[in-house]
Amino acid sequence: MTERPDRGATERPDRDTAAEPVIEVRDLWKSFGDQEVLRGVNLFVLDGETLVVLGPSGCGKSVLLKHVIGLMKPDRGSIVVEGRELTKLDAHELKDLRMRFGMVFQGAALFDSMTVGENVGLPLKEHRGMKGDELADLTETKLRMVGLAGVSHLRPSEISGGMKKRVALARAIALDPDIILYDEPTTGLDPIMAEQINELIRTLQRKVNATSIVVTHDLHSAKFTGDKIALMHNGRIELVGTMDDLRHSDNEAVRTFIARGHAPALGSKGGAGPIDPEVFE
Amino acid sequence: MRNSSFTPGLAIAHVGAGLFGTIGRVAIDVVTEVGFAGILLWRSLLSLRKLGRSAPLVIEQARRIGVESLPLVIITSVFTGAVTAVQAAYQLKEFVPKIYLGTAIYKSVVIELGPVLTALVVGGRVSASIAAELGTMRVTEQIDAMDAMAIDPIRYLTMPRIVAALVMLPVLTVFADILAIGGGFFVANASLDISPKVFIEGMKMFFVPRDILGGLMKAFVFGGIISLMGCSAGLRTLGGAVGVGAAATRAVVTSCVLILVGDYVLAVLLFRIIFGE
Lengths: 281, 277
Prior knowledge:
heterodimer; A: 281 residues; alpha/beta; Rossmann fold; 2 domains; 6-stranded mixed β-sheet; B: 277 residues; mainly alpha; 83% helix; 0% strand
């Protein structure tokens, strides 16, 4: 089994030959109690690029994403966004930076005390001071961009799971962000709806030209939405490349994931792995 | 045959260790809760600079905390006043003239029963509701989503609830005082053979405005305790439905205990030191 990540693939590009990365994660470590969730993650994303972080449940993908937007603080390591070290920003600077992000949460995270329209309009109201018809019109435009027209009066509890993800997408692009983060955008959806969300992510990438990170365990979603795929296993990035690079990799964790759709079982600390057939005997 | 597995000394040591362990855990929990609530209060005070922008949120919370609690406060205070009248008449009948019944009811309601009972019933309702709402928002990542949108959850969620409770608890206490005295007045008149004139004369005899002021100051502090404990428990929620339930319970227990302890501290502070002779 490969113990070390493919360092060359996760290191930043040469300054003289390539563009500056928009997001760069350097040697990121995070533990919860005695469980090490991130174990030295290195990653970079270039301007306008969509990076998919692929890996089994519980490998630390969502934790990594929350570090990128400053919702969690690392034990060690750094996150540089557009040249600024995220961990060293004060509250005001972090707020300014976050306004350039859009994030779609795994469970959509819509505010259930508000209507769909109020959810999408909240960042516009709070940060651009919009109100009245101007706010309603722009909210409706954002909802139409994700294929949802005429639903702004509904409550999140009155719409389906797929619609919730679309509303979350509309909310994420409300402020025309430069960077969009997607946490498991197709989880919990039927294959047809998952396909529609994948197409929507791809379409939005073309329309808004944002730099994106998509976290998923869905191989098909990764292949469809990503320009570049980073395979994460056991708190580390094992490989970064295209789907073809992943298919031809010698890395055991990568080969197992591609072959079986999940990575080898984690160590003794627990986590997601294959089902033990003996439990059914 | 001798049972070699039971050793009294070890059993006592085990129980002792368990007891001290429990006391230690409770002490750590209390310090953590109070510490977090203190930080929350400080950050909420800092966000008061944006009170004007948050006015609609404060008004909405004032409706939920104040107006929606009114039916509960009406029932509690009317019957509290009525029971106070019956009990006071029974306790005083051999020793004190009837004219003092109005005094007893007015003083006990305005200084003690109005603010404390209002805080306890509203506290149970409001702190649990705040903790459950914010706790659900925490476990469903709604608070993370707010942070990710660069909207400060303290300014958007906590500060409006604290300001609304600080304003609405004294308002509810004024209603409670009036209704409790009204309940006592009605019972005194209807079944205790005390005329309205005698009752009102009794109230007037020892009337001092500082009694009302002291009661309302208590209500103001209780409003802060209720909202702060609800927000603190809600924002610290971990896990799913079980975590939300635990947060609601913690909010009610801590706010009720702090209301009762705070009542004693305020009684000493207000009526012995500030208003004292």
